[in-house]
Predict the structure.
Amino acid sequence: MRRFLSSSAGATFNQETPNVTINVRKECVELIFKLGRGKYAILNMIHNQHGGITLVSNWCVYFNRLRNPQAQLPMIERNCPTLFAVMQNEDKDKVYEIELDKAQTGEEKVHGFALNVDSGIETPLVAALTMEVLHASYTLLNKCTKIYRELCEKPPFPAWKDGLKDIWN
């Protein structure tokens, strides 16, 4: 799974949807959003064990910086309230923190944010790309960009701002 941000799309955009496209990979379907010139956000779509779809934003090793939660969480709560809500499973949009290992992704360890969408039936991932899934992907995209912006503007610790380069492909 590719990381959340990239300087290359890795897929072609068409005229009907100039700001979003998909890329089919062996382990997932990537939803790629054009944020600006040379800036793309990537959400990975996978099946979950409940027969639904999970949208995943891969921040890779970024959150390895959280080594002492008791001391660090109060600073995160003060400076990055959106991140804090997600980390505490209190997000109003039901975005949550996720960790997937190599067995689940086929690649490196994935650590980031996710949002589940009930699809009702087990279908191939490409066929599961419905308006409901697309709407949920915008919810996750907006949440992740808000967290990124909070971390850029008011990082809880200086190294957290410098480390944002870790989530770029």
User: Anything to note?
Assistant: Strands lie at 5-6, 20-24, 29-36, 39-47, 53-58, 96-100, 110-117. The helical segments are 69-79, 81-87, 102-105, 131-153, 158-162. The mean pLDDT is 90. The CA atoms of residues 85 and 92 lie 8 Å apart.
